[in-house]
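pinned: reference chain
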Amino acid sequence: MNPLNHVDRAGRELAEKVGDDGLDKLIEKHIEPDPHGRGIADAAIKGRGVSVWVIRGEIEGGKGDFCYAAESFRIPVDDVRGALAFYWRNRMMIRARIALNSNDPAYVELEA
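pinned: its structure tokens
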């Protein structure tokens, strides 16, 4: 099974539910650029320092369950939604970031 299935499904569902404006609001409220200037793929939850790409992995581990990821990092579910919104908008960059830490080429598949 493609390791991106649960997260991409959750991202697609969130995007369909809240629309572009809703994604923008979630990102603006919950996500900040990487304070070390490493780029888009290292953006994090505001005030918490947990990178979006790390939360993306936890969403996958919970088979798309936001609560699983929130509990794992002890952060509000809305922070996880913000991370998922950011991931959905920047998934190719974040997949490439994950690929840097993984031997699994599935993380860089070019599917929309």
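why pinned: Residues 5-99 form one domain. The chain has five helices and two strands.
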